[in-house]
């Protein structure tokens, strides 16, 4: 097992920022997470058509903006013309798509950690994405404040070429944990495994923990349904509902 950055994992990580309270993947959603008492967020990063890294989940902009079309069809100027808040509520009208650089500056200012998901949507190039974002991530965040995850193995492999395990914590993202998880994780020297929580089996959780990996599960929004899983050794729940989860945990007997 290689040495990894000394990451103090939180119980809760705000999925796409505090996305139950603010438009996902925005500066406002990250600020809302901090205000709710959560110091770590999960965010998605991908590239505009002109190569600018932005914080965005979908392949297109229809769901989360007042525009339409593929992200890959936009340059920075066009992207900044979109309102990415009003779809969520009038109070968020005027919110603009965040660049990776703007987001890193905010995370630094708020003293927050990030699980940055390298989001390789269909037809996009994982290598170009990693090459564009990795220098900024390594420059912008201390090793203890950064976990880079992806469903895309080629992307993770490329990330590892930028920095060794002691400098860069990588996370293997899965739906159901596949039979190959152990060899995948060893080959990439990952720090953590990130399964879809309802599909994780107890035996898999035990094996993952026994092998020394951290275990971060997404996307858990009902704290009572998730409750029994804490005993499986899960380190962190990635949740849209940080306030609901935090309240629930606060009310548990110690
Ligand atoms: O990183 C956990 C989770 O965000 C993965 O799925 O689709 O919400 O990015 P998605
Ligand atoms: Mg994500």
From TrEMBL:
<protein>
    <submittedName>
        <fullName>Glycerophosphoryl diester phosphodiesterase</fullName>
    </submittedName>
</protein>
<dbReference type="InterPro" id="IPR030395">
    <property type="entry name" value="GP_PDE_dom"/>
</dbReference>
<dbReference type="InterPro" id="IPR017946">
    <property type="entry name" value="PLC-like_Pdiesterase_TIM-brl"/>
</dbReference>
<feature type="domain" description="GP-PDE">
    <location>
        <begin position="10"/>
        <end position="249"/>
    </location>
</feature>
<dbReference type="Pfam" id="PF03009">
    <property type="entry name" value="GDPD"/>
</dbReference>
């Amino acid at each position: 097992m290689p040495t990894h950055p000394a990451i103090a994992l939180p119980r809760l990580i705000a999925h796409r920022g505090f996305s139950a309270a603010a438009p996902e993947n925005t500066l406002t959603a990250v600020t809302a997470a901090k205000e709710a008492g959560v110091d770590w967020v999960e965010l998605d990063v991908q590239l505009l058509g002109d190569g600018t890294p932005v914080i965005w989940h979908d392949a297109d902009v229809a769901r989360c903006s007042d525009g339409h079309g593929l992200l890959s069809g936009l340059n920075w100027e066009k992207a900044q013309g979109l309102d990415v808040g009003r779809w969520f509520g009038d109070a968020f009208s005027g919110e603009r798509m965040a660049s990776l650089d703007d987001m890193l500056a905010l995370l630094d200012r708020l003293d927050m950690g990030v699980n940055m998901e390298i989001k390789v949507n269909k037809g996009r190039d994982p290598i170009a994405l990693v090459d564009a974002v990795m220098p900024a991530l390594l420059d912008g965040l201390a090793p203890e404040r950064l976990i880079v995850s992806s469903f895309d193995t080629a992307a993770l492999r490329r990330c590892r070429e930028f920095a060794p395990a002691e400098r860069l914590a990588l996370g293997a993202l899965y739906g159901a944990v596949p039979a190959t998880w152990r060899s995948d994780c060893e080959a990439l020297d990952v720090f953590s495994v990130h399964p879809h929580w309802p599909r994780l089996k107890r035996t898999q959780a035990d094996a993952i923990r026994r092998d020394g990996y951290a275990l971060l599960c997404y996307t858990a929004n009902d704290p009572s349904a998730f409750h029994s899983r804490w005993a499986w050794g899960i380190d962190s729940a990635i949740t849209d509902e940080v306030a609901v989860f935090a309240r629930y945990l606060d009310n548990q007997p110690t």
